[in-house]
Design brief:
A seven-stranded parallel beta sheet has the order 3-2-1-4-5-6-7, with helices on both faces. The chain is α/β, with parallel strands linked by helices. The protein is globular, with a radius of gyration of 17 Å. The protein is built from eight helices and seven strands. It has a single domain, classed as Rossmann fold, CATH 3.40.50.720.
Length: 251
């Protein structure tokens, strides 16, 4: 067996209950991965339970764990729970994030602190814990945003919070390389999910669509196969941020 095949591997999917995270969970499960589906709070527990139930109905193995990833002790607890359940971890994918579109002059300190905690701090300690806990030859993937290469207004705390993850990814790729752990970030374009629509007017949605192939938003179905590729044939890609956005932006 190729060591980068998914069958019989163990994966932790941060934010794996619904939307992109849920699709990644189900995609990996279909390939024979044993899964931990992380969810943030009681508001997403039903989604996590549904995803786990679907995986089990398909003959897969999965369980759900709640944790607030802005607290490093809770990040560590989830990784420990996965190791206790399955004996080791091969793949760690972090889809956790929060979107806020608001002018800088209207942004409060509390909003800034929350956005940085969810988008930067949580990603940092997820990568740290993965570096401590993953099996040799593992893979770490973090979802960031194509806004990192955009020149736009309103997303200072979202794109600003995701921006450090590029540097975390590069540093981790070097530091974990001696153990064969590959580290990559993926930057989708504006995605066709409730997170996006809640921040934009219909006019701005139309503008974002107009900037991509076929005049459409990025779909979660566009991104999940790329995550799968990076954990398998694309394992050799490390230290990189991969933009997958239908030409929405580039650099």
């Amino acid at each position: 067996m190729n060591r980068h095949e998914l069958k019989n591997k163990v994966a932790l999917i941060g934010g794996g209950a619904k939307n992109l995270g849920g699709l990644i969970s189900r995609t990996f499960a279909q390939e024979g991965v044993r899964l931990c589906v992380h969810y943030n709070s009681a508001s997403t527990q039903a989604d996590a339970d549904k995803t786990v139930a679907e995986i089990k109905a398909g003959g897969g193995e999965a369980f759900a764990v709640q944790a607030d990833f802005t607290k490093p002790t809770e990040v560590a607890a989830v990784f420990n729970a996965v190791k206790q359940k399955f004996g080791g971890i091969d793949i760690a994918v972090n889809t956790v994030g929060k979107v806020l579109r608001k002018p800088i002059i209207e942004t409060t300190e509390a909003e800034y602190d929350t956005m940085m905690a969810i988008n930067a701090k949580a990603a940092y300690f997820f990568i740290k814990e993965a570096g401590l806990q993953l099996n040799d030859g593992g893979k770490i993937i973090t979802i960031v945003t194509s806004l990192l290469a955009a020149f736009t207004d309103g997303y200072s705390t979202y794109a600003g919070g995701k921006a450090p993850v590029e540097h975390f990814t590069r540093a981790a790729a070097k530091e974990f390389a001696r153990r064969g752990i590959s580290v990559t970030a993926v930057g989708p374009g504006p995605m066709d999910t409730p997170f996006f629509y809640g921040q934009e007017t219909p006019e701005r949605v139309a503008y974002h669509k107009s900037q991509s192939l076929n005049g459409d938003l990025t779909k979660i179905e566009d991104i999940a196969p790329i995550v799968k590729f990076l954990a398998t044939e694309g394992w050799w890609i490390t230290g990189q941020t991969i933009f997958a956005n239908g030409g929405y932006t580039t650099r």
